[in-house]
Design a protein that fits this description.
The structure holds 2 protein chains of 2 kinds.
Chain A lengths: L1 H21 L14 E7 L4 H14 L3 E6 L3 H9 L5 E4 L5 H6 L4 E15 L9 E2 L1 H9 L8 H6 L11 E5 L4 H13 L1 H6 L12 E3 L1 H11 L3 E6 H6 L6 E3 L5 E2 L3 H11 L23 E9 L5 H15 L18 H9 L6
Parallel strand pairs in A: 1-2, 1-3, 5-9, 6-7, 6-8
Antiparallel strand pairs in A: 3-11, 4-8, 4-11, 9-10
Helix pairs in contact in A: 5-7, 12-13
Chain B lengths: L5 H31 L1 H7 L2 H4 L3 E2 L4 E2 L2 H32 L2 H16 L2 H22 L2 H4 L13 H26 L2 H9 L4 H11 L1 H17 L2 H6 L17 H8 L6 H40 L8 H4 L1
Antiparallel strand pairs in B: 1-2
Classes of the chains: A alpha/beta, B mainly alpha.
Chain lengths: ~350, ~325
């Protein structure tokens, strides 16, 4: 009996200790007595490198502010924002009207930087880049164009000796904003793609093999002669993978770089909706690369924690001005200058008291 | 048995609580998976198990290609891994010179400690090119057969099965070695006394431990069913039902890992949860079947061994 009493006492003690330990820990979002503020966000993986750079640079300027970002994917970011488990969300795909209606408050979209998706291929002995048009890419990914020396490709690349081999199509197997942007563009330029496949972060692919992540697709393409895939521009730049040129709406063949991606956003400015929920693929601008997209930060118009809101607003102003200069080095395209004042105006709508 | 003192009772209740915890976890996993997949269950019902279309844009979801891919890849992996693992186990426990034994045991167990993603990268950059070479060098008339059709890209069922085989081998071989170690010396000595050769004596030991060995193989099967990352990287991720070893296919665990993070549509999310539920059910069924197999083998062994009054219950330990 004695042993049992001792055991129970020990158990009670453990429970008590556990309780007292977890007692004083506050939810991480709350400001503690030392004046430090933590803000939590979650969402897209694509902008993670630039966001983490921004947060760490911003933290150097404002040591009391710590912004945490979990790159769990756009879908997860939107869900966590809707459940109010994070202060801000981030997404590569604007929220639909239906999703906005489900959120407990009005959600605002803020474009932060731009990215692009580029076609990559593996054909030996080519001295210049292959030129593509949107419909040709769509037909290849629909399985209608099967060989590299198909007349439709040869016509665009006069004088180039294209092989007679089969085209092996590689695509992303994981749900991704990259896939969404790529498919969104193809749906705009190919009615058949729009009807048969559509645009989403995961698709029912008519042909091809799926690689996981940019590295999966790039690995597949670099290893497989005669293959064609797509990756983010950032990834292709950093890993020095050669990519093709794509014809834009004004008929120019554009080799993607950060400038031509910014040009795509500038070209979309005249028709920019007030809430910035816009696809800028197939942009009409001059010199615009057609497979470009914004990535967004999502904020509530009337956030629950006004202290955090104030600090987040300061951060956003900084990111939209000074922060833009850091984009290019990491392979992201900066926002067109004319867009920034419009976003600052929307930022003022956020209630900070 | 009547508890004699308070501490006995406390001990019984304490350990009983831990055992109940396992049950509670299993039940709650099943409950959560069912609750989170309710939209998909209502929408598709049993059709979910037998249709082939997986189209997040059109909101049509069927799990058959994933079920097929999971079971087919795991069976192929076992076909490759089981004989190799038994060979390793037999060599290590019966034939290996003592100086080599410890290093070899250490190395096989090291294989089990390598993270899945590392296997995946190794698969993508080493195994897949080798499989592609095999595919391109295969004569055309063989390539026409159902087993070897498909594009020669290296990614596909064969790569997935090979990498799974490498991953389950250390588990099966370690367990089988433990089983062989537990076979009483008298079994082998008896065999030698009857004039058996070394090979025949080992066969006696293997036959004695066969329930345990079957248990080890089934445990490997369970692991192969749930393996995610390495398989995702080499299987090609194409939801088709095909016998071909070279065709890119897809598994249940892989589609969850691939699509879960970016699934924004509710039905899509629920369909992914239902895939999890299907995988859970299949794993339970496989485990139950292997239990039954071991149980029926035990009964037969006991029935035969009865005159000698020597029950062989080794399998129940594994």
């Amino acid at each position: 009996m004695k042993t049992l009493t001792v055991m129970l006492a020990a158990m009670a003690l453990t429970v008590a200790c556990g309780g007292s330990e977890s007692g004083p820990v506050k939810p991480p979002s709350e400001a503690s007595t030392t004046g430090r503020t933590q803000i939590n966000g979650a969402g897209a993986t694509f902008p993670y490198p630039i966001y983490s750079k921004w947060f760490s640079e911003h933290n150097k300027l404002h040591p009391t502010v710590e912004i945490n970002y979990q790159s769990i994917g756009s879908g997860g970011g939107i869900r966590q924002l809707t459940e109010r488990t994070v202060f801000f969300g981030a997404t590569d795909q604007p929220m639909s009207d239906e999703m906005l209606a489900k959120a407990p408050g009005a959600v605002l979209h803020f474009p932060t930087v731009l990215g692009a998706v580029v076609p990559i291929y593996n054909i030996e002995g080519l001295s210049t880049q292959i030129k593509f048009t949107g419909p040709v890419i769509a037909d290849i990914f629909l399985g209608k164009i099967k060989k590299w020396n198909d007349p439709a490709i040869v016509k665009l690349n006069a004088g180039m000796s294209l092989p007679s081999s089969d085209i092996t199509v590689a695509h992303r197997s994981d749900g991704s904003g990259t896939t969404f942007v790529f498919a969104d563009y193809l749906a705009k330029v190919s009615p058949e793609w729009k009807q048969k496949v559509g645009a989403n972060s995961s698709l029912n692919w008519p042909v091809g093999v799926g690689g996981k992540g940019n590295e999966g697709v790039a690995g597949l393409v670099t290893q497989t002669p005669g293959s064609l895939g797509y990756v983010e521009l950032v990834y292709a730049l950093q890993n020095k993978i050669s990519y093709g040129a794509v014809q834009n709406q004004s008929g120019e063949f554009i080799v993607p770089d950060v400038a031509s991606v910014t040009a795509a956003a500038a070209g979309a400015l005249p028709t920019m909706p007030k809430d910035f929920r816009v696809s800028i693929t197939n942009s009409p601008g001059k010199g615009a690369y057609p497979i470009s997209s914004f990535t967004w930060i999502l904020l509530y118009e009337d956030p629950q924690d006004k202290n955090q809101a104030k600090i987040m607003n300061d951060f956003m102003k900084w990111a939209l001005n000074e922060g833009q200069a850091m984009a290019g080095d990491l392979g992201y395209a900066r926002l067109p200058e004319q867009l920034v004042p419009l976003e600052l105006e929307q930022l003022n709508r956020i209630k900070t008291q | 048995m009547k508890p004699r003192s308070g501490s006995d009772l406390g001990f019984r209740l304490g350990t009983g609580a831990f055992a109940a915890l396992v049950l509670a976890i299993v039940v709650s996993i099943g409950a959560v998976l069912s609750r989170e997949s309710i939209l998909s269950i209502r929408e598709f019902g049993f059709r979910f198990w037998i249709t082939d279309t997986w189209d997040p844009v059109a909101a049509q979801f069927g799990a058959r290609p994933f079920i097929w891919g999971t079971i087919y890849s795991s069976i192929l992996a076992l076909v490759i891994a089981a004989p190799i693992s038994l060979g390793i186990a037999t060599y290590l426990s019966e034939l290996c010179p003592p100086r080599l034994r410890q290093p070899l045991i250490f190395l096989t167990e090291l294989l089990a400690a390598i993270p899945s993603i590392v296997y995946g990268l190794w698969g993508l950059f080493v195994l897949v090119p080798l499989v592609r070479m095999l595919e391109t060098s295969m004569p055309d008339n063989l390539r026409q057969s159902a087993l070897f059709s498909g594009p020669p890209i290296g990614l596909g069922m064969l790569s997935a099965a090979l990498i799974l085989a490498v991953m389950v081998t250390p588990f099966i071989s370690s367990l089988a070695r433990e089983v062989l170690k537990a076979v009483p010396r008298t079994q082998r000595e008896g065999a030698y006394a009857l004039g058996a050769t070394q090979w025949e004596a080992i066969r006696v030991a293997l036959a004695y431990g066969r329930t345990g060995i079957v248990g080890a193989i089934m445990l490997g099967f369970g692991r192969a069913l749930g393996e995610t990352m390495a398989v995702t990287m080499v299987i090609g991720n194409n939801p088709t039902v095909s016998l071909s070893l070279f065709a890119p296919q897809y598994t249940m665990a892989a589609v969850i890992a691939n699509e879960f993070t970016e699934a924004t549509d509710d039905l899509h999310l629920h369909a992914l949860f239902e895939i999890g539920l299907v995988l859970f059910v299949i794993t339970l069924v496989v485990n139950a079947l292997s239990r039954m197999l071991i149980w029926s083998m035990n009964r037969r062994t006991i029935a035969r061994a009865k005159p000698k009054a020597e029950p062989a219950v080794l399998g129940s330990a594994a």
